[in-house]
Amino acid sequence: MRRSVLSNMQQKTIALVGRTGNGKSATGNTIIGERVFKSSAGASGVTQVSCMRTTTISGQVINVIDTPGLFDGTNDVGKEIVKCIDMAKDGIHAIILVFTTRSRFSEEEQATFLTLQALFGPKIVEYMLVIFTGGDDLEADGKTLDDYLSLDCPQALQVILSLCGNRKLLFNNRITEENKRLEQNQQLLNLVDSTIEQNGGQPFTNELFKRLKERATATEKAETLRIKRRLQRRYENELKRMTAMIQSKLEEELGKLKIMFEEERAARVNAEKKYESFQNSSKQEIQRLKMDLQKANSSSCAIL
Questions:
Q1: Rounded to 10 degrees, what is the CA torsion of 187, 189, 190, 191?
Q2: Dihedral of the CA atoms 215, 216, 221, 226 (nearest 10)?
């Protein structure tokens, strides 16, 4: 499988991506074997647009794309990185994350990884491998990359290495002996071939990017619809709950009003009865007084 996939491949394309100052362009120059990419030890990025150069490693044609630092502050960096896909005629076979052993892994570098996922989708991780520059410093101290990573390796970096299939390589950009440079390039090519084999020889192309984006969009739409339906059900349930609560409260208040009205009506009826009884009593008393008065008048007339 591996031999058939790799033997039919006329050329391979790799893209160097990373934070400014990690030695990304210098790594490209080391791979090519001459200073073809602008490189500086300063903190500001020299590479402003993506550019591609070609070399040969063990008879294999290798296209190397140098990209702007993801955090150079330019507005078009994202567009330039996306252009890598179109720049590579047959697609990109490996994305090389360039870190350095000369400084601690930072949140900015973690953001670089997350930015790549955001730009190209989660499948891009299957095309990634990691290069650590500063190999000359570790070699001078008699240490290996594994020694370096065993010393308080941040959790975020461990996750990235794991997602990249632990495809990693210590790189020396100050190497002077040509045979050692070629040996280092061969180690890199072996990792690239491993990445290609894992992806069945299929490079990361613009067409694949579009398909993944369409799939992600469809998934996002389905998720959005699911969320809308869930929110709609939640809204309807909440509306029912609120309606039932309001209805219950309304019935309670209406019940109180009904009782109050009944009490007022009973009090009014009782008052009317009392008034009617008083009025009848008054009429009877007036009638009695009238009769007594008439009797008194009749007695007075009889005496006269």
A1: 90
A2: 110
- pLDDT 10s digits, 238-275: 888 888 888 888 888 888 888 888 888 888 888 788 88
Angle between helices 107-120 and 155-163 (to 10 degrees): 30
CA–CA–CA angle 71, 63, 205 (5° rounding): 75
Task: Give domain 12-205's CATH superfamily.
Answer: P-loop containing nucleotide triphosphate hydrolases (3.40.50.300)
Residue whose token pair is 């009797």: 295
Q: What single letter denotes the amino acid at residue 241?
A: R
Provide the residue ranges of all domains of the chain, joining segments of one domain with +: 12-205, 206-276
| Helices and strands (DSSP H and E) totals, the chain | 9, 6
Amino acid at residue number 238: E
Distances in Å between the alpha carbon of 134 and those of 40, 236, 252? 14, 61, 78
CB 68 within 8 A of CB 45: yes
**Whole-number average pLDDT of the chain:** 81
Give the bridge partners for 92, in sequence order: 204
Specify the pTM.
0.64
Q: Output the pLDDT for position 50.
A: 80
Asked if the model's pLDDT at residue 224 lies above 80, the reply is no
